[in-house]
Amino acid sequence: MVWLTETAQPFPNVSPSRLAIYQLQSPTFKKAKRRRKVMTSLIAPIIRNHLNSPVLLGGSQCGSIIFLRASLPMRIGLICRAATILSIVAALLGCRSPSSNNQETLKARPLIPREFVRTPERLVRGSYLVNGVAWCFSCHDPLDFSKPGWPPVLGKEGSGYDWGSFGQVAPNITPDLETGAGSWTDDMLARAIREGVAHDGHFLNPAVMPYEFYRAMSDEDLASVIVYLRSIPPVRNHLPLPKTTDNLVTPYAVPITSPIPQPNISTPQKRGAYLVQIAGCQYCHTLRDVNRRSLPGLEFAGGDLVTTGPHPEASSANITQDPSGISYYDEAQFLKTIRTGKVGARQISPNMPWWYFARMTDEDLKSVFAFLRTVKPVHHRVDNTEPVSYCRICGRKHAGGALN
Q: pTM of the predicted model, to two decimals?
């Protein structure tokens, strides 16, 4: 938006015969001739109605209006009307006020100098989280589509991937100095993982990077992840810059400024609750609105239809204990499904990163199942053997939607 300010200095070079001279110098308008013409055409009638003397619309970065011959009330009236018009036009055309900071300025916390100490325990724990629970390489790695579960390509772990048609680029997070995260600080990685802010300060898309769930990751687990990422072989892999948008919805990109302690895992249910959170199970199994908020009453009830990217079209399953979900699962069946990627003879979709979850310990998988048994049952049929159709329960289209 162009702000209107009054300058007391006269402009001796303005000819009295000219009604108005317009000069918009906002950086936004320099790149938009069409916007400049629209703004001018809207402001000109106001000026003509109020002044019979030369007017200069010009100024510095934010723009200014200089009135050469006008009474003070006239100037005030003109400013108010022009400001109103400009506000409306700016809103319609997507212009931003120079004083309105972008999200990065408003929300991203400053980086701090910290370095996580490398220990054998952290290396082991970090490997377990990255290659299992947090399934990091399912995005930050080219996948072997010829194998069940689409595991990462050996030797390319963490090297990033350009998901072309999907419109996203998962960066190279190996220690390569030129094309990877070798020059990033530990806090750059920490801020990206849990707060959704990239190393260069732009916000990450929460529909792609599940940092809203990694926010629950304890400080020690976070340190373990970063220590492990520093230990993997560097892989040189040049990737295009990620696409960003000013309209990105980032409700969970909130600075973390206090310690996150180790979770209470005194019972299988509590242990499972933590694992389900940092594994991002609700990332697929709970539907979201346009603001990335969970649809009330549909927690873990599935129905998220994935239609883009290299994955075959599929809808996430209802994993509550309702008969339309997985009430027929016992603990053994749950572990077998995760380990094999099959329900009986039926192969589950590779959209479900079961290959990574299969690397979790029996104790952790049993804890996940114990937690899921405590989740409120939700009636919501999702069946990937049925065609995609409208569902009256969730108001979306998904496989088997017409069955509800």
A: 0.73
